[in-house]
Fold these 2 entries.
Entry 1:
Amino acid sequence: MKKVSVIRKEHFNAAHRLFNPEWTDEQNQEIFGKCNNPNYHGHNYDLHVKLSGEIDPKTGYVFDLKVLSDLIKAEILDLFDHKNLNLDVPQFKNLNPTAENIVVVIYDILRQKIDTKFDLKIKLFETERNYVEYPD
Amino acid sequence: MKKVSVIRKEHFNAAHRLFNPEWTDEQNQEIFGKCNNPNYHGHNYDLHVKLSGEIDPKTGYVFDLKVLSDLIKAEILDLFDHKNLNLDVPQFKNLNPTAENIVVVIYDILRQKIDTKFDLKIKLFETERNYVEYPD
Amino acid sequence: MKKVSVIRKEHFNAAHRLFNPEWTDEQNQEIFGKCNNPNYHGHNYDLHVKLSGEIDPKTGYVFDLKVLSDLIKAEILDLFDHKNLNLDVPQFKNLNPTAENIVVVIYDILRQKIDTKFDLKIKLFETERNYVEYPD
Amino acid sequence: MKKVSVIRKEHFNAAHRLFNPEWTDEQNQEIFGKCNNPNYHGHNYDLHVKLSGEIDPKTGYVFDLKVLSDLIKAEILDLFDHKNLNLDVPQFKNLNPTAENIVVVIYDILRQKIDTKFDLKIKLFETERNYVEYPD
Amino acid sequence: MKKVSVIRKEHFNAAHRLFNPEWTDEQNQEIFGKCNNPNYHGHNYDLHVKLSGEIDPKTGYVFDLKVLSDLIKAEILDLFDHKNLNLDVPQFKNLNPTAENIVVVIYDILRQKIDTKFDLKIKLFETERNYVEYPD
Amino acid sequence: MKKVSVIRKEHFNAAHRLFNPEWTDEQNQEIFGKCNNPNYHGHNYDLHVKLSGEIDPKTGYVFDLKVLSDLIKAEILDLFDHKNLNLDVPQFKNLNPTAENIVVVIYDILRQKIDTKFDLKIKLFETERNYVEYPD
């Protein structure tokens, strides 16, 4: 059967700090540089959520993008938007909020809410020049 | 052999309405909401056509993008640009012009015009935040 | 006093047709070309609303952009989004919905809702390559 | 004489929190909403610095944009990039870091470093949809 | 009378080299750095042409953007696109093709072709991060 | 194991000319048109380098994007930026510098510098509307 992908773009603004609590300050500074600022810095994150599946012949939709947008708002934006990822988001209590870890956390949350008949792939832009995809 | 993909971006502006003629007005309103306006609404569609194949050692091209641009203009833009998809485009006489159905129609038209030694993939942006890909 | 400008970007999707009812079909076709399609075509319109004024020392705001966004939604997007400008929007009953006329209509609506202590300027993108500003 | 404007775009990533220390928590929440998160949130700020002046006939430049880029890096990015605006930037010790206040602070710093024969104007994007200009 | 601005965006790709023939190689290298490569380098130039005037009540247009696009193609793109600005464009035979000089040359050409009842302003992007405007 | 992709965007500006030295001028003109200008033309090239691999649990990184940026600068930008691809870059001494050939050259250079445990994919934009990917 023909499979089509549909993609919805959303965004959120958040603060974070990169560091490994098992390392010394010097080690953290060496690896994470400016991103290790203990007072945090922040980003406008652009999030692309992609579902792949068959077109429903009654609607012409693979998945209603309004429904997908509402799902992303309820499951992801309410958790991440205008938040400090290190302090406010439980998933990063013991996990460094790098773009790589954020994209896997978002995937794991959404994967549980979306029927497994749809393939799921996430792209996350931390800046215009740095972005990540999962699964690869 | 090494395969490289080449992509040409084109665009068209069109009106459309989403609805299923077998449903009641209430059902159409419930599923398609604002997109069900019987007077139509419209979009600037951005179209990315991707061909994958081997580089011709004489030209250094996989496929001349000027030729691809002319092909897209002749086969797709002349049919879709500044048109009402529901009323003016025969392919949507009995097919709901969702982004998913539009991308499959475009693929099917171009697939017949492009040598099968090239893989073909289409990406279509209906808005900056909603887009589709086929094949997935 | 120091005056700062604040700008909020919104968007809407609409269908329209350009024509002058006092002209013959041939005249309309000659002047408006593809834009004269009687079945309509459409666009994703990007709207930038700019207010200029002094910074309120208590808030640090010239104008709360959340309030401005809500105002644009209530006064403009509810009127224009997913609509046929010619058929659904009273302001264009006897006015050709060119980008120039749309930007003046939007200005006139918002000007009545925004305190005259703020300067107001509107930018409207009809496509990525065609846009207008009012006042100039 | 002919005056031409030259513009250099730079960017920085920072955390901030909006609040007025003279207000109650309820007042701050009412006015600043999500932006009042005491744990901070953040943005990718895009900064456009515009100088207007006459073309130097020897170089063909109004102002060497490499020199302008270096000046912005030394005077602004070193101060703001990967920082917490409230905690790390002295100018915001007693000033709410709204986009309006940030753009005036940047202007005041750069105005002292650039010959007054050049007009100076700053545009600052806090998000893709919210931005400010100074002077207006 | 109400004046509205209409803007058309076009683009061209060109090679150039920055240098002053009255200077030594060392002086040219010091001022122009990488841009002084005697073998040339190049850019994708984005050009925004803005006309301001009154709306024609018969058409709803300030100026037909299709006509403006054709004019830019005939007067500017045919002269600049896929050219070496230093070698192929007569205006730069004795004029350094900096963005500042290019924007003034484009203005001077178009100003002669456009009725003086319209104000004219040109914006030229040499890169995404370096651009110029004339008049300022 | 979970594999995540990380992507870094860089850019360079270069001149080039497309031609096949084994062909007559007429053949070159027929195939390459404006791109065959013997005086060269140029582009702003946007380069996206994508590495796929497992997340290092100590850093939360697949690959430090600052390190990747430095690697791209040292291996690619120093070779290509502000250069004439035909005259200044040894790889194109006997190879036509089409986007397809450039993307393969960049891949081959970077592939030797990046551990084979990472998958590598390159995307190169020659203009906003023409771009290539390798491997496909």
Entry 2:
Amino acid sequence: MSTATEKVLRRRLIQRPAEPGVRQTLYDVIFEADSTLGRGFDIALLVAIIASIVLVSLETVPEYGLQRDPKSETPVSTLATWFWVLEWFLTILFTIEYALRLYCVRHPLKYAFSFWGIVDLLSILPSYLALFVEYSAKSFVILRSVRLLRVFRVLKLWRMMSQADELADAVWKSREKIIVFLAVVLVAVTISGTLMYQIETVLMGSSHESDFTSIPQSMYWAIVTMTTVGYGDVVPHTTIGKIISAALILLGYSLIIVPTGFVSAELSSKLVTTTERHLCSQCGLSNHRAGAVHCDRCGHRLDDVIPAVSSPDGSQGS
Amino acid sequence: MSTATEKVLRRRLIQRPAEPGVRQTLYDVIFEADSTLGRGFDIALLVAIIASIVLVSLETVPEYGLQRDPKSETPVSTLATWFWVLEWFLTILFTIEYALRLYCVRHPLKYAFSFWGIVDLLSILPSYLALFVEYSAKSFVILRSVRLLRVFRVLKLWRMMSQADELADAVWKSREKIIVFLAVVLVAVTISGTLMYQIETVLMGSSHESDFTSIPQSMYWAIVTMTTVGYGDVVPHTTIGKIISAALILLGYSLIIVPTGFVSAELSSKLVTTTERHLCSQCGLSNHRAGAVHCDRCGHRLDDVIPAVSSPDGSQGS
Amino acid sequence: MSTATEKVLRRRLIQRPAEPGVRQTLYDVIFEADSTLGRGFDIALLVAIIASIVLVSLETVPEYGLQRDPKSETPVSTLATWFWVLEWFLTILFTIEYALRLYCVRHPLKYAFSFWGIVDLLSILPSYLALFVEYSAKSFVILRSVRLLRVFRVLKLWRMMSQADELADAVWKSREKIIVFLAVVLVAVTISGTLMYQIETVLMGSSHESDFTSIPQSMYWAIVTMTTVGYGDVVPHTTIGKIISAALILLGYSLIIVPTGFVSAELSSKLVTTTERHLCSQCGLSNHRAGAVHCDRCGHRLDDVIPAVSSPDGSQGS
Amino acid sequence: MSTATEKVLRRRLIQRPAEPGVRQTLYDVIFEADSTLGRGFDIALLVAIIASIVLVSLETVPEYGLQRDPKSETPVSTLATWFWVLEWFLTILFTIEYALRLYCVRHPLKYAFSFWGIVDLLSILPSYLALFVEYSAKSFVILRSVRLLRVFRVLKLWRMMSQADELADAVWKSREKIIVFLAVVLVAVTISGTLMYQIETVLMGSSHESDFTSIPQSMYWAIVTMTTVGYGDVVPHTTIGKIISAALILLGYSLIIVPTGFVSAELSSKLVTTTERHLCSQCGLSNHRAGAVHCDRCGHRLDDVIPAVSSPDGSQGS
């Protein structure tokens, strides 16, 4: 919360043009979401980004036949023309936006080499580069896919929401537990993968065909199974394999619910602590409800309602 | 909650006929669930709705041969006749119910254009319209399916349960977090979908057939995988694809447990606060902490600590 | 907890033979788990039940060829003989146990018609009845399967665990929420099933084969999908079907995490309340930690530690 | 926790060489993670273990052709040579490490027969034994797989993390509930497996082929379904089977969320209590409720309310 506000303030101090004028106004519209215009710009951008992602991904559907070379003699379909027009319209829009961003920040180079700056550049560059690359070549297809990095810009709406930091914070705080958890998963996956490979392939002999062709394949099965994804492309075929598999599923299930519980508990405790913490200056009772005016033990007036963020235990994040 | 009670009271003030009589009695039976008759009516309606849904869906099973034209020469099976009889019996029942509803509310037009009014109309209209539409035509099948909107009426039993609002409330409160979560999912799905498409189709060449035929198809795979549904109709076939897929599964799993934790935490904190509530006899503030001696709003001594079970909103169950 | 203890005491008062002697000693061994012998009996019984379940289920595996008629001329395999011997050994054991149970309770008929009495009878009766039924007949196979109801007796170890009631209680308390949840699931399943049936089968025409052959089949798909089971036997084949399917998966996922959160929250609040509740007789502060000796507000000695169960709010179940 | 710290201290007292010197320095580097060198050693070991696991598992991929006999005439591929070199490099590294460990502990035999000592030995022994075993024999492949037990050594990084004990503790505390849960799952799996076998195979006759060939197969299906893994290799084919299957899925889902809730609740309550702990200066009792004024064991006034962050067990993270 307030750390997020501080971050916003710090960024504004660094990047917002100091003197009032066109650049400052533009900065407020493009980079901030406080004004009506700024919020409108954000929503328009969001729509443009999602439209652009839909376009770029639909381009690869073979049935629409959009990956042909427009320079060739084969008549281009109307659909392809529309896609081409829309794609260039959006590309030019994003180019203008990128130029404006560079224009209105105080330190354009700093922005250009920041994470968002690079994402913005990668969103438009491939469209221009593609003009010089041979059509239907592999590198062409890959190049055009780079435009899909645009999707990262959806995350810019992050700042619209006050709760996002809380979520990121809860995940970040659970990082050590997640590492321990990944170590346990690594061990479980390796051991169960090896076991199933031995049983299904080595022990059972070549009388029946096995899906567990190698240990990496078995590990892939173990991960797919323990996370309850269960594609079904690799399944045990022997009775012993099925029994061990069932046991591993139950074990894996018990194992994988633990991090869920941890994140849930972290969020739970966060919610409890942030909504219930005030200190009475007379009797020292803390942990009052949000909005409490009198101490509920001694009845003393809680004049100095200390907001949760200033509590000294550092539970308010990073 | 009290807001729910208020809503019920407001609706009653608006729609319940003012003068006592047949209409008011009918209104109490059909719209309210307080009396024995009203509760009985609700249960009878529930049974009728569920029976009707079973009927309409079984009609589409090809083995039962119920989609034939009864006007044709082919002898109709006894089963089809039974279905026809039951369906018309229920349709007429729902028609009478709809007519009575219109009759006993104070402002029939207001009801007719409300959500429930439209659902009620759509539940019976297709049966009558179907008489004029050619059998076995596409539009006929679609038309008859509209009757399945009846299922929404099951939600009318919502008011029977005091806990439903709590559930809806918890989901509603988590809405901002859910939007953030969906944005993160959108980014993860786009990036991982594009990556898998590149690896499985473009990089690996045409030596083996790939399930990742296009980016939308890959995104479909990413959603099916990250939510641990895992149909198995689209699976990676290359070793690199499997390794990246396994990594994405673990990442996706970590990602998707977060909203579970949020809703869980929201409900948890709610439950903790609702089970620890005390009423101040002076200012009427409820919801004090367990063990509170003074009201935290007015400082009045809470002599009469009213246990949670006697709170008037009925959140203590059965 | 203490309600469970009360139940045990009540049962003992009713069913335990009043006068000391062989019957009372036998009763304590067979029905109670307090003594070393009683506990040993419980564990032995548990092993016998699990062994018997394994036997009965392995009998149906076609490869072992155990379903043949032993009276026929075909030489019975050694494995089949072993199965036969073990099965009869266990059946006779269970028969003796059943007889002893009937012998040592005060009211044998009351026991015979109780849930456990019927389960005990159904565990042994089919073995004897099977002697008079023709082998390899359908009814024979079904009859022998009835013996698997023995598995219910595993639940007898329930009383070994103090935590079982807590679990059952948490589930029971969430029953209203679970009904609401099932109503919401019913609506979601019907609407999404109908929608997918329309799109995949009716709208798309007969140009491609669809897995959504009827509305019940589509509903089956919706349940399999929303619970993230995802067999993959019914999957969308059209692009529009896949997009709608992906949207439904995300919606369904959001929907299905709610009851998880509810049960989790219920258990959470329970744990918090049961571990922290004691009343100070001087200042009236409740909610002390388990094991607290002095009131943590006024320092008064907590002579009268009132167990959690006697708190008036009825949160201790049933 | 402090028990973990005690364990470390006890181990150090027993196994750390008493007199200063080379052995003590080596012990601190190899067994402890306090010093920079010790931490560096741990990380290097971690990298080596993971590299070795990747190597051993890739060896079994048929496409790489690494399972051939290098003594045969067939020219070994460059890749195979590289694998061979790396594998022996790592084996020798692990051998040196094992020798050093035996050298620097006070009681080498005690270490050699401890869990970690056996894992260390099993990590290197198969490589040496494999020299004397015929290539491409079954026993050879199994022998080499034993090396994958190395993965257990990843768990040595456990001590790097203060949170691991908390996780293990939460799982351990839930053990009774997990046993109850497994008993309930066993009953549900047996009953639903038998039911589906009866319906799909026995009742439906031989007119269609069934995936439910035996009761164990049906139980395998029940476990795969109830844990929401859903491979799709065993699916119901009859309409009645699908209806019962859908009901079982919903029931199983309700059932399986319970342990998730339990672990989550256990962790939640743990987190709440660990963040709200105060130390009594008289008797040393920690872990008082937030807002406690008197120690609840000795009644001494808690003048010095020590905030949670300064608690000595390091549970406050990084």
